[in-house]
Amino acid sequence: MEREARLAAQVAREMRREKKSLAAAYAFLVFGGGVAAHRFYLGRMRSGFVLVSLLWGGLLLSIAYVGIPLVLAGLVWQVVDLFLIPGMAREHLEDRKPYVARRLGVDEQAIDGLLVAAARAPRSTQV
Hints:
The chain has one domain. By secondary structure, it is mainly α. It has six helices and no strands. The longest helix has about 35 residues, at about 70-105.
């Protein structure tokens, strides 16, 4: 029982370490939106590259007025991302569970149960 409590606390610690900060994600959106920094921070590499291509490709093509719709689409996408960031952060944490399980040598299906056990355990075992 003691071993399971220790393992549960370790899993909880590792999952907290994997969690992404919403404040940082929003800061990346506001200050690094032109390079899709928020998407890269949350592990969304493909859509990050697409967003960068839309914004910068559209900017380059705007000389011929062809790229203006691309830039506008990228800007609308970033406004939509204001509402999507919390969900992307949750999904990122869910995606990290198999890596945490492998790193700790725990069955992947046991991660959720161990997280519940860690939440129920007294604080002294979670330190």
